[in-house]
Amino acid sequence: MESYELACEAQRACPETLVLSVADREGDIHEWFSLAQNKAVEERAALLVRAKCNRRTAQKDGEYSYLWDELSASPILGRLGIKTPRTGNKPSRKATLEVRVKEVELCGRRCNKKVEPVFIYAVYEKEKRPPKGEAPIHWMLLTSLPVESYEAAEAVIGWYCCRWEIEIYFRVLKQGCQVEELRLETDKRLLNCIGIYLVVAWRIHTITMQSREWPDIGCDILFCEKEWKTIYMMQQKKKPPKKPRRCGRSVACWRGYRALQNYVDALEMAKIVL
Q: What is the CATH number of domain 2-148?
């Protein structure tokens, strides 16, 4: 819950901005929802969590139901098309999700004691007809934001999908730029170095994502002339063409970006010497 407290600090500092704390299933913690519910409005960051537990929900007649059952019985608000990220050997694919929304009251017991009830919006998305051999996509998202229309539900789902891009970005930063391996003498030097690598990681991430999304665009959109010509000579072992070629699906690797800059510098030095 420390990350949510930091999000609330950001909300206090930026009262005109919506600050949203997004978590995957490890964030499905009742105390987290209670904390968000009890925060003062002016310092409350919004919360969006993918549900893990099939929590008990209170009904108007005093009876109980369960989260998945209650949402599955709710009417379909609309259908949304998404594109899943590539995972391992599984390629990215398109999926159509049925969207259901309902405000629910989460209740339960812990150590034979009732826990504080939490009122929260649940957004349930499920793929009706997945491709043969594929498991259907189904997400249960819980949010403190009011979701009372299809447009609001679509926005919540879009924000959750952004989590994939954020995870990829930090994977580039950690594994590609290897910021966790930095060993500098002072915190000032460390912060300066991390600041530079944040920009480098953003550049690599942008190049990778754009080349996957639009493989037929010219490579000069992503690289300067010196860079794409250097890449061409490294791959084709011959003089580069005058006009840039299309990007293709793989134009950069995390550990190769710094090496590319070294090759560019070497070629420029060679022109001076020769």
A: 3.90.350.10
